[in-house]
Amino acid sequence: MLQISQGRGQQSSAAASSKKKNESTLQRLMRMYGEHMSVVQVAAELNYSVTYFRKKIGAANYQHLGWVKAIYPARKKSGRFWVYRTESVASFLDKGV
Questions:
Q1: Where are the domains of the chain?
Q2: pLDDT per residue as tens digits for the range 22-67
Q3: Distance between CA 29 and CA 32 in Å, rounded?
Q4: Is 38 helix (H, G, I), strand (E, B) or coil?
Q5: pTM score, whole prediction
Q6: Where is composition skewed (Polar residues) in this entry (predicted)?
Q7: How many CB atoms lie within 10 A of CB 29?
Q8: Which of 20, 21, 47, 82 is spaced 20 to 30 Å from 28 by Cα?
């Protein structure tokens, strides 16, 4: 059920079908994940490994990265775990990586 597109790694069939329907990134992410996204979900949408995402988002040395600047301010604690506002992730994805 996975498609491989050139230069972008693997893309889910849900993402491919949502483009056909002209569904915005925010609408697709809200439908799939809701108001907040977990570390695993954000890493998957950015095509990063979970380990890479956690290391970069939490280290002061990497605050200059564009995706860290866009997503880090949108994080909050949900119990023991960090979650990120879906709206911020979608706006970064719409800008282009």
A1: 24-95
A2: 679 999 999 999 999 999 999 999 999 999 999 999 888 998 999 9
A3: 5
A4: strand
A5: 0.72
A6: 1-11
A7: 22
A8: 82
